[in-house]
Amino acid sequence: MELGNFEPLFGELKVDSSAITTPVRQFLFQVHAPDPSHLRVDVTDCFSTSFQTLRSIQQLDDMRDEIGVGGSWSDFLEYLVNSIKFGDVKLVLQGQSESTGPESARLIAQKSKGMPRISVPLRRLVGDAANEAMARLSLDMYKSYKTNHNLLLEEKEGRHQLTQMLSAEQEKSEHLRKQLDELLYSNRHTSQKIHDKLTSASSSAATLYDISEKQSDQNPSPMKAPKRVVPAHRRSKVRGVLLQDTEDD
User: Which intervals of the chain are annotated as region Disordered (predicted)?
Assistant: First the structure.
């Protein structure tokens, strides 16, 4: 992770006002990188009190050594982000003045008990600088809200499209299933009809065969008498042609 890729962090601070005698408002903070070489922290109650600090890479590296976070530079930035984003973050007000309020403050963040504690000193802003810090925090917070809101809308739209696609696929699948069921039913019905016809034809053929067999048994075919051969000496011999003249009367 590098400062150029640092995403702005926003949140509400727990105020440690044990040394403050007057009531205090709630404070909002923003941690962001105005450029790839600096990290800025703005804290304001959006009314009358604002604080700020601007830390260079060298100052952040010194802070890493002071709090005892090992590893690489990216590991330190990741720990810083996680401590502010998910840990216990509070604002300690210092240098109370009855007329102008606290003169300085310190932002303290700790990821969890027993882990290194990040402590960032803040200086009090006055005049235009305070107004600019409040305006910047408000505008950047709104931009962050719009970005997250648009991402949420895109996610909802994508989820809606996926739901529609899933519904369409389910309808298509149901339609194909019905067609398949109808086809299987038609095939079974046709096969059953063919089977019934074949069974009926086979039964008819068997019946006809049985009838034919019974008829054959009941009416046997008469045997033909063999032809008798006349002896040659008993046969009349006819030789020549008998001619008969017919005389006219």
Answer: 209-249
The amino acid at 243 = L
Q: Where are the domains of the chain?
A: 3-151
**What's residue 249's pLDDT?**
44
Q: Model confidence over 213-233: pLDDT tens digits?
A: 666 666 555 555 555 555 555
**pLDDT of 77-93, one tens digit each?**
999 999 999 988 999 99
**CB neighbour class for 96 (10 Å; exposed up to 12, middle 13-18, buried from 19):** middle
3-151 has which fold? Dna Repair Protein Xrcc4; Chain: A, domain 1 (2.170.210)
Q: Counting every residue, how long is the chain?
A: 249
List C-alpha distances in Å: 164 to 151, 158, 175, 176: 20, 10, 16, 18
Q: CB-based contacts of 35: which residues, under 8 Å, 6+ apart?
A: 3
Q: How many Å apart are CA 9 and CA 190, to the nearest integer? A: 72
Helical residues (DSSP H) of the chain, grouped into ranges: 57-67, 73-86, 127-218
Q: Please state, in angstroms and rounded to a whole number, the distance separating the CA atoms of residues 9 and 195.
A: 78
